[in-house]
Amino acid sequence: MISRETAVHLVAVGLAFGSLLAVDAATDGPVPSVPAFLLFYGVVLGGAHFYLAVRGEDGMVPVASRWRYVTLLAVLFTTGAVITYWGDRTVATVEIESIGTAIIGLTLVAYLLTESIDGYRASRTE
Questions:
Q1: Beta-strand (E) ranges in the chain?
Q2: CA separation for the pair 37, 11 (Å, rounded)
Q3: Exposure class string for 27-55: b at 16+ Cβ within 10 A, else e
Q4: What angle do CA 120, 123, 126 make, to 5 degrees?
């Protein structure tokens, strides 16, 4: 029997493919690559976690971890889009690409540390 989480993930993948088809039909041509990437992978990677986090369903992953993961994806995709479209511009004397790369690196480190600490605390016996 398929678990509820697996079913939600399968629906998210189906919605991602459906969204690509809808964007393709609406644009009358090739799908723009960056928006299509953000839409498709945002729904595939984060859609099920977002849905289950909003519903407050733990399952195999705690709700707090789902929210952290969705936040991580939002920061990474937003920063990636900013770098793609405006990476060659500068703020003062620093290129936006450098700032975005630092944000991505710090976000990944913070996410890994937070998840590691939370996992360690959850594994400790009281």
A1: 90-91, 94-95
A2: 18
A3: eeeebeeeebebbbebbbbbbbbbbbbee
A4: 115
Residue linked to tokens 């998210």: 12
The two beta strands, 94-95 and 90-91, are: antiparallel
SS3 category, 65: helix
Longest Cα pair distance anywhere in the chain, in angstroms?
Answer: 60
What pLDDT, on the 0 to 100 scale, is given for residue 5?
Answer: 84
Structure-token match 């990476």, residue found = 87
Q: Please state at what angle helix 63-86 crosses helix 33-55, rounded to 10 degrees.
A: 160
pLDDT digits (tens, 9 = 90+) for 70-101: 999 999 999 999 998 888 888 888 999 999 99
C-alpha closest to that of 38 among 28, 54, 23, 25: 23
Residues constituting the chain: 126
